Amino acid sequence: MRKITIGNYLLERLSEIGIKDIFGVPGDFNLGFLDDIIKNEDLNWIGCTNELNASYSVDGYARVNGIGAILTTYGVGELSAVNGIAGSYSEDVPVIHIVGTPKREYFKRHMILHHSLGTSDSFGAYKKIYENITSLTVWLDAKNAINQINNAIKYAVFYKKPVYIMIPQDVASFEIMADSDLLSFASGFDLEEHKEIIEDVKNKINNSNQAVIISGHKVIRYGLKSDLEKFVNRNGINVVTTGFGKGSVDETNELYLGVYSGLKTPDAAIAKIIDTADLVLIIGNKFTDLTSSFFQLNFNKDNVVEISDTHVKYDNKIFTNHSFGFLVKMLANDTNINYKGLSVLENRVAVEFNPTEEKITYNRLQVALNNYFVEKDILVSDVGTCTFLSQYIQLKKDMKFIMQPLWASIGFSFPASIGAQIASNSKVVNILGDGAFNMVFNELITVINKQIPITTILLNNNGYTIEKVIHGDGKPYNELPKVNYSQLIKAFDPEGEKSISLRVTNEIELQEALVISRSSDKFVFIEVCLEQNDIPEALKGFFNK
Amino acid sequence: MRKITIGNYLLERLSEIGIKDIFGVPGDFNLGFLDDIIKNEDLNWIGCTNELNASYSVDGYARVNGIGAILTTYGVGELSAVNGIAGSYSEDVPVIHIVGTPKREYFKRHMILHHSLGTSDSFGAYKKIYENITSLTVWLDAKNAINQINNAIKYAVFYKKPVYIMIPQDVASFEIMADSDLLSFASGFDLEEHKEIIEDVKNKINNSNQAVIISGHKVIRYGLKSDLEKFVNRNGINVVTTGFGKGSVDETNELYLGVYSGLKTPDAAIAKIIDTADLVLIIGNKFTDLTSSFFQLNFNKDNVVEISDTHVKYDNKIFTNHSFGFLVKMLANDTNINYKGLSVLENRVAVEFNPTEEKITYNRLQVALNNYFVEKDILVSDVGTCTFLSQYIQLKKDMKFIMQPLWASIGFSFPASIGAQIASNSKVVNILGDGAFNMVFNELITVINKQIPITTILLNNNGYTIEKVIHGDGKPYNELPKVNYSQLIKAFDPEGEKSISLRVTNEIELQEALVISRSSDKFVFIEVCLEQNDIPEALKGFFNK
Ligand SMILES: Cc1ncc(C[n+]2csc(CCOP(=O)(O)OP(=O)(O)O)c2C)c(N)n1
Ligand SMILES: Cc1ncc(C[n+]2csc(CCOP(=O)(O)OP(=O)(O)O)c2C)c(N)n1
């Protein structure tokens, strides 16, 4: 037993689960706790420009690191982050949101404090708001803090969802006696269920003439990428990912076919293999409108085995007492599975990019990027027209892919790239539209001053292009004014020492910029000028339902 | 009876209550409704850079116009605006938040749509979130839409709080038969209660030797400024405002004493008059920590008569069935009130600003601004160090003052100025710190491209100065990197045709910049360079409790 403040106890737990950086914005109700953070040698404070951007950054961090933490202030701070945390909830990203709140005595004295709704119990309203977008909310209490903190962390880890911890100023500095035990993440599951599932799946695979695996985002969230790969390779079963699951499979694996998007999968051969399969193993995936051509899925539903964290489902059976991770590992290691059906081997011939003086199009940009990436890079894509390019880029070995195909909040990708870079130290390339960038470009301050060496590729077409495709082409509400983005960068780096800013209009310039990005350890900003009406091949007809 | 779509019916009602401009951001679930807006000749669409900024803008608009409307898209859009709408709730600003949602059939089909939390009933979660920060939430329904719309508008008008209206795509375009009747705002109240209150107040005033009025923000919200003035002038009773109520009284009136902030009121003579009064009439005010020196109010609580919208309270009586507006008007028109007590007449001698070559300080800036303003100007202040300057600036006749002393969300003032300018066409001057501006400067795009002729005075001290005053002076988390703000403006106005950007370091430059601002009809940006440790007189010692 040793003496420790509750604030420091929380920080120790964050370190224990692998958090090294805390994102956020100061506010008078969290300043004391911030002192603990900056004194802590295992943790870095990443001050962001505003709370929405901080919540996007920590999401990107958590997608790479497995978990992340953000600190905001009572009311104004936490409520600015609602959209970002909701995105983490929607896409199953565990983020610990810590909110510095006023001393408890102020509430008991019924004081109308700043950042309140004009009542002395506003914290109740904020907590209720967060109940909708987290798996657990707690208001720390001196007596019960150890238990509350440990419980919240487990909720984040087990459910891969955000949690919300309110830490009153006086609780943060309150000293308690605590053990030095480690958190236990023993999980409850029913081994009999596992055996039954494995037996059934084995029989299905062994009797299948053509099986295929559709891999989803939860394979990434639960850290099962290598287990799934073992399963694929040992049995020689073809695998695809959805746009949501992109990055869950090594895309250089010969058994990997590509991204499957339902009826409108750009490579029709992929859709055909899935539609004709007699066994479709869907692992850790959720079909959403934009990753399924609006639920136009033509495979035979009777042939489906769905294995995920919340349930396993096939024939008329549904199981809910399993461990997703354990089950996938058991499948991967089962030597009795003996698939004798068909499989296709992909021999990916990279299309070379031979730049010309032609204007840049989405399709050519895709070719250029396919040639750009190398192992371990991270591609962070926004949602918009670029989605229909980036999800079809071939990932090199150990590359990661970050996008929000479900939550689809534009602007997300730029701050998320900061988080992804800090978590990985990899080359992070961020691709987004001008509408998206305009929402969040304040975060240039952080990128440039903290010298985050990401590359941002801004696809400038002076408008909300994807919206025009959906509705309102030619309407004023989908037009965007011109911004001189090179000047914008200069505002934060007047001497041009900390960043490289390039504006490219033809393929040769594009190629030159990509070469610079590859070798630079600075922030590289590439503005790609596109024609207003150019769109990627994969987007054509996508919204014609 | 005539045929009209529900979307257009809603727009007609917005026009009827005086809304001329709708702020927001497009999204695929609101694009059809947006077509109705841009086709509508009585309404302008003000597309903003992001939803938080849109929610700040509409709040500024509603504070001037009496009411405002904002349109966002399902999930990502609406949840980005939570902090702004919560601010409107906290500070009693009626804002109608309209959210474009997916077609109703999608929910019934249990589809996992983009912008959902990964469930088909996510709209329920968003509605629940908004229940905490609005007076009413409705999900429009073809059958009941007329009733729902009218009801929501009345909630906004009666309670001076935001309301939340979800309009599914198919409901917006659904045709109904509707009357052409106008909304009725008849309000229920108990005339007997009014008579009793008036009688009691009259007796108290007639027997008082020294009465004083403390006027609050609700006098502004309920449009009672001229009624209160009539009451003050007819009876010769002194009046002060709080920081929250600043702008509710003509500050050139001789009976007006100044801003009262409790124990630490900069002008101690004002606090003394209130502390010694034998009758303190508090009208439409709420004491909050930052406007009351943390509730250090030394007037005699037994002498208080509190008159507000939610209650009237004095001696042991509490009334709740009155109409605030009607009651203030009755008091103003009562010729039987006959105050014979003391009153002080203020003869404000304006201190001239004679600029020198000295560096600019907060205190000198205050003198300069006191000389800058003229009738009908609007001053929009952020919260931070500038609060302790701006709330003590003397407002000229018919000037308006906008600030968030209670919600205190930094960055608010810049987008709010856009709204205030659009609502008024007045000279709007916005004053804020660099930390605040960094949160929201994307909205420069809107200011410059829509040519909103506000003047923004950026107080640049490279840090979160007010936080340093509270806690953490010298700590890295309170430092901000340098930004070249003139370059920043250039990014949006490379030719310098649409804006004037000035950086001032001494008093003479400041004065020159203010002269330019006065005569310009462009966006004028004045960066005032301040010493890191300079603070206004009124802030010194304020946080030493
Ligand atoms: C926070 C947020 N607000 C609004 C939307 C609605 N929306 C979806 S796509 C889009 C336009 C994207 O424009 P841009 O980033 O320029 O990409 P483009 O398709 O033009 O390349 C908008 C506004 C959204 N998804 N997220
Ligand atoms: C949205 C939001 N986030 C965080 C805070 C906490 N906060 C209060 S004052 C302040 C610093 C203000 O700095 P600046 O705008 O530069 O003003 P200064 O006092 O330095 O003049 C911060 C971060 C807040 N009030 N609102």
Automatic annotation (TrEMBL), chains A, B:
Domain Thiamine pyrophosphate enzyme N-terminal TPP-binding: 5-112
Keyword hit for Magnesium: yes
Protein name: Alpha-keto-acid decarboxylase
Keywords annotated in UniProt: Decarboxylase, Lyase, Magnesium, Metal-binding, Pyruvate, Thiamine pyrophosphate
Domain Thiamine pyrophosphate enzyme central: 198-315
A single Gene Ontology CC term: cytosol
Transmembrane segments: none
Keyword Lyase among UniProt keywords: yes
GO MF terms, alphabetically ordered: magnesium ion binding; pyruvate decarboxylase activity; thiamine pyrophosphate binding
Binding-site residues, Mg(2+): D434, N461, G463
Organism of origin: Malacoplasma penetrans (strain HF-2) (Mycoplasma penetrans)
Entry-linked CDD domains: TPP_PDC_IPDC, TPP_PYR_PDC_IPDC_like
